[in-house]
Amino acid sequence: MSGVPGWEVVIGLEIHVQLATRSKIFSGAANRFGEPPNSLACPVDLGLPGVLPVLNEAPVRMAVKFGLAVGAEICPRSNFDRKNYFYPDLPKGYQISQFEQPVVGAGRLQVRLDNGESLEVGIVRAHLEEDAGKSVHDAYEGETGVDLNRAGTPLLEVVTAPDLRTPEQASAFFRQMHGLVRYLGICDGDLSQGSMRCDVNVSVRPAGQEQLGERAEVKNLNSFRFVEKALHYEIDRQIERRQRGLPVERETRLYDSVQDETRPMRGKEQSDDYRYFPDPDLPPLVIDDAFINAVQDDMPELPWERRRRFLEEYSLGGSAVGSSVELTDRASLTVKELGKADRTINVPGDDRVDKTIAEYDADRLTRDPDIAAYFEAVVAAVRNAKPTVAGGRDQDGREATARQAKLAANWILGELARHLNQEGLGFAECKLPAAALGALIVRMEDQTISGKTAKTLFDALWEGAAAGADGPSAASGLADALKLVDGMIEARGLRQLSDSGELKALVAEVVAAHPQQAEQFRAGRDKVLGFFVGKVMAATGGKANPQQASTLLREALHAPS
Amino acid sequence: MDPFPSLRQLTDGLARGEWSSAELTKAAVQRAERLGGPLNCFITLDEEKAMSAAERADRRLGTVCATPLTGVPLAHKDIFCMEGWRTTCASRMLADFVAPYTATAMAQLEDAGAVTLGKLNMDEFAMGSSTETSCFGPTANPWSLEHSPGGSSGGSAACVAAGITVAASGTDTGGSIRQPAGFCGLAGLKPTYGRVSRYGMIAFASSLDQGGVLARSAEDAALVLSYMAGFDPRDSTSSKHRDPWLEAVPHAGVGELEDGHLTIGLVKEFFADPPAGAPLIDAARRSLEELGLRCIELSLPHIAMAMPAYYVIAGAEASTNLARYDGVRFGHRCADPQSLADLYERSRSEGFGAEVKRRILTGTYALSAGYFDAYYVRAQKIRRLVAQDFAGAFAQADLLLAPTAPGVAFRRGQLMDDPIAMYRQDAYTIPVNLAGLPALSLPCGLQDGLPVGFQLIANHFDERRLLQTGAALQRATDWHELRPSLDWAEAA
Description:
The complex is a heterodimer of chains A (561) and B (492).
Chain A: E1 7-18, H1 43-46, H2 57-69, E2 77-78, E3 81-84, E4 94-97, E5 107-112, E6 118-130, E7 134-140, E8 143-147, E9 154-160, H3 167-184, E10 196-206, E11 216-221, H4 224-243, E12 252-256, E13 261-264, E14 277-278, E15 285-286, H5 289-297, H6 303-314, H7 322-328, H8 359-367, H9 369-383, H10 395-422, H11 434-445, H12 451-467, H13 478-492, H14 500-513, H15 515-522, H16 528-539, H17 546-558
Parallel strand pairs in A: 11-12
Antiparallel strand pairs in A: 1-9, 1-10, 2-15, 3-4, 3-14, 5-6, 6-9, 7-8, 10-11, 12-13
Helix pairs in contact in A: 2-5, 3-4, 6-8, 8-9, 9-10, 9-11, 10-11, 11-12, 11-13, 14-16, 14-17, 15-16, 16-17
Chain B: H1 7-16, H2 21-39, E1 42-45, H3 47-60, E2 73-77, H4 104-111, E3 115-120, H5 154-161, E4 167-171, H6 178-184, E5 187-190, E6 211-215, H7 218-228, H8 244-252, E7 263-267, H9 268-271, H10 278-290, E8 294-298, H11 306-321, H12 340-351, H13 354-367, H14 373-396, E9 399-403, H15 419-424, H16 430-435, E10 439-447, E11 450-458, H17 463-476, H18 487-491
Parallel strand pairs in B: 2-3, 7-8, 7-9
Antiparallel strand pairs in B: 1-3, 4-6, 5-6, 5-10, 9-11, 10-11
Helix pairs in contact in B: 2-3, 5-6, 7-8, 7-17, 11-13, 11-14
């Protein structure tokens, strides 16, 4: 929790989601990024004299999909309005939007916060509108260019209730939305290209005051981090002004990420009278039950459904996770519970969690559909290995599944995520096939390699995958992957010392070499065992099984010398 | 050849090889050149384009691909975008704008083989009732050069009345086809809203604009309409209503009045203050009765409120429809803009004429915060009441009869300094646009040497009764055969 004692912060978001349709919202021009300027603008997008908008079905379907996902009412009859203002990148001098009657009504979204808490945020509405073009300031000396390729791109603008209280909650919501739209397949989620943009409305008020303070809007934030940073700056600025007795102006501001500050926005038409009125070119958008049912039938597994499934499918028992599963079930929440939205659920603390998919892992695995898919592919690869390793319905099987799932989660959220981050890649661009990571886990499970050498093996696999060609990137099936992994284990001598004779001899040597520590152990200082395990591991270059080594060490230390 | 042939006569002559399209087109160009100067009805006359279209049409004539329009020279109001044609809307703002695409209604006419002679003068952005707000200068009435041809489709009316083409397209937002047709002694058809695609027709007031046709007879107007009409996927407000009767017009004509004893409602409010030419309109009514139609009197109680409501709605829509003319992408741009605001202010100040500015300002005011409910919302309520009035009327009558305009053509310049008097020109035509109904203005004689018109109004998509009644009347009478003497052309 950030903030200044004595002040309460109130935040609401408007998130613009560029819908991943093939065509623009009101024309047949292609909706793509990265083409030469103005090559994707047809007469309708250019706002030529005489052209008319025609609403395409795809953006409507996507809006309805989103509405159903957040439990919102789908408006059977919504309208399009003109929002009038002059700007060079707005070809018609007005933007077609939905003002009075949006297609998606009130809904709610459950947000998983990084600290494991859960927060329900109200969605006030979501409406369809067209995006504007882009002003290009750096292409011509002293002149501004206009690229209208983006003009007419369908946008879904999602407006939240002022339910957020901290910058961290705001960015968590943005992140949750980011995951959701990608699960739904309605947006590519590419923040760097502006596929999702967040406007934050923020105000401060003395703690306990009912009435909201004057709010400022910070527009066009395109990363989770910028949402947090802009809000931190803006909250501090507003509190500081209030503390000095100065008013907070109701205004629109922009965040400068270089200076890390927000500044009043300039350039747009001064007045904010947009003279909204129903667009006479577009009849009301009528959506019937058949359409809604068809969209419902096409609904993918949603993030929270997948999260619950992961917890159930890959966990031991239900007790450790039961309470939170209930809360994340959207269907079980009623409007009455909205007031309790910020009640918290603690991450289960018992030690079983380490071996299973804890909530924290489930959150992170399911936040991004690509991560979730990768995880399931790894687990599936491990399961396919052989019956003795694979999980199953019986207790042993379930434990094996949970253990493997936890291993997969650790690798994916740890090493793999770290490597991908370093190279600025997403999971969709991950060159290391899930089967290769699966094979690595299989060889950990059957004790062929130790945890320590597994790390070496992982690095080798990663590098090989990055190099491409016949390396790990080609090993898409588990059989191929195992063959590859086994080859690497042999070639690099990573096999764990499971021959107890060899290890026994080494243990004896280590004990003999450190009589003082051996004496301490025998005198009851159990911790000294760790010292010996370390020595054994070092002597084997990490290839010893630490469990086996400690068993043998205990035997050797207790044996009369 | 009769200098004022009917469209059917032209078609039949083309089919029989009595004349070629090239001959007709050449003659039309010559007539346009001879008469067009004093009339100033053409903004663009393109002989080269017209002749090459005529030659294409001649190759098509005699094949199964020929239609009754193939090879027929037509001219179009300069509000319809046509690829490669300068399309100006009679505004300095678009004086150099060459359209890169073709309006659906125009494409359908050209696909049928019609030859485009040129683009016709009009009030700037169709805002006006006299064809005097054009940046290309006013158009004169062929019946008397001192008089206005009406507007905004005055160029179309003058072109047809002078016998340059048999028909011309027009648009009608508040009477812009019917009033010029009335002033020039023509049949002017404003179809049901949604009948003719608005795609490519430069918008004035989107919920009121409707493309249509001016011709010398109801029969000819119907034939041209049959090619202009039809559902267009590019226009969300175009109707999917199918009309087998209209589709059959090209080969069957409008036909006899199918249902003999129609009832005609005389709108009491429209005759309370007798319009000029009332006796002539009454003669037309009697002729209709002689055809077997029964006349009753009925009331449209909210009609007096229609005009103010219209000017609020039309202005509101126009104010945002014309926002795209900002000097950024196309159209007039001021020289050497100093800032973005300067670019907008000067480009628009220089590009738009006074009447257009008046409407933009009125409309902007009506949509502004604090005034929206008092003006725009109220105007929409009135619009619904007017539509209900008409619905009530059509429960009693099949067609309504009303004057087209308060008087005959006024002298040019007479109303230019009195916008309200100019707006009153449309008092009888505006309610029809508010309700989206089809209406047909027909001539019914001369007063002081100038034509008088009256209009028949039908229920939505009932163009059949409208045009069958009009055609039946014209078979029984000869008002539509009256021609302007064009003595001014001899003098020239």
